[in-house]
Amino acid sequence: MPETRTRVRILVVLLVIASSVSIYQAYQRSQVPAPPSPEQAAIDAAIDEALKEPVARPIAPAVVATTADETNRPEPAVPSPLSLEELIRRSMPAVVRVEAAEGFGSGFFIKRDTLLTNVHVVGKATSVAVRMPNNTMHRAVVETTAPELDIAILRVTDAISEAQPVLLLGSGTAARQGQEVIVLGTPMGLQNTVTRGIVSAVRQIGPVTLVQTDAAVNPGNSGGPVLDRDGMVIGIATMAVKAGLGQGLSFAVAIDHATALIAGRRVSGAAETPLAGLTEAMTGQPASAKATNSDSDVRRDNGSRQFTQTIAQLARRADEIDTYWAQFTNACYSGPIAGGFARNWFALFDAKAMKGAVAQGCSPQFVNLQSAANEVRDRVLAADEAARQANVYPGSRREVLQKYRLDYWLR
After folding, report:
1. How far is CA 407 from the centre of its chain?
2. Which CATH superfamily is domain 180-283 in?
3. Is 222 one of the annotated active-site residues of the chain?
4. What is the fold, at CATH topology level, of the domain defined by 84-156?
5. How far apart are CA 187 and CA 185, in angstroms?
6. For residues 269 and 207, is the Cβ–Cβ distance under 8 A?
């Protein structure tokens, strides 16, 4: 019996052990995860592949289609902006004073021998004087005028430096409200002058585009360049609104019109001048093409007109003295007379010019000749002074006197 009980105990122990093993194996099987789905397997594989690469690898650039020529083209250098002082220093040598019979204004080189200015600066002249920033002079012919745009194209006729600075043409129609602008020119006869401001607006007056600025534009600035901060010309200064109509309103004709004019294209349907069109747009009243920008301009125009008329009358008197002088020197004078005068009788005003003698009995004729010559001289000087007080420009007065050969006393 004891043996039987021992066998039973051993059997029970073995059963307990076998049962424990089965339970443990079942528990282990319950902890094994189910196989991953195909989508999760792909994600896991991508992660495993990424972990093989360095953590800080650079991002590859996007592929952009290029032509064969562009494939190896270097990136364009971005120019650093010029300081205002440097921009002006580079631009000013291209800006000149234009002197014509009816007044003077500004102009600027766009090619070595080609300039732009306003029509109202050159007036009806076919040639003008160009005063450079260093005060040297050149002659230029008026090649093209477009009064409806107030743009004139000039061509220098004498020798000019191959290194003459020029300005590059941009676009006025693309000007942005608020952008900074610089105006260069010769206001009130003061050469090499700078003013600055902003673009107030870009105005369309019929087919003509005007750039409105708050930069000071005074008499003499007309025809000068309006530059953006890159030094590109965006307009040609043409007017400031007459006092009473507006304050601080200055306008430039968009340079795009000059570019088209150079290419032979002109606008149609424009007012007689930009000022006429602008005045009509502002007041609702038709404006005369001869409207001026200020009371000073009116006075100057009247003074210039009166001066020209007076000198023309004195020239007819001087022509009579020419005839009288020829008769006198043939009949009443013997000896040398210096030459080189615009009118031969100007020798009367040069103590070294007449080395001969007046014949006996001709003294009254000589006195009459001197009296007539002195009268012309005094009236020329008086007319010139009146024109000066009317603010007629010196270049305008000189050109009129040269035209009528009466500039001797102003040398």
Report:
1. 34
2. Trypsin-like serine proteases (2.40.10.10)
3. yes
4. Thrombin, subunit H (2.40.10)
5. 6
6. yes
Weakest-pLDDT range from 2-16, 190-204, 228-242, 319-333: 2-16
User: Domain coordinates of the chain in residue numbers?
Assistant: 84-156, 180-283, 295-410
**Beta strand pairing call for 127-131 and 180-185:** unpaired
Read off the pLDDT of residues 322-377 as tens digits, 9 standing for 90 and up. 999 899 889 899 888 888 888 999 988 888 888 888 888 898 888 998 899 999 99
The single residue of 120, 138, 257, 396 carrying the catalytic annotation is 120
Q: What angle do CA 202, 208, 212 make, to 5 degrees?
A: 30
pLDDT digits (tens, 9 = 90+) for 245-254: 455 578 999 9
Selecting among 91, 150, 200, 384, the annotated active-site residue is 150
Q: Which of 91, 106, 200, 222 is catalytic?
A: 222
Q: Which residue has the tokens 């025809």?
A: 223
User: How many residues are given for the chain?
Assistant: 411
Structure token digits, residue 148: 């409806």
138 included as an active-site residue: no
pTM of full prediction above 0.90 = no
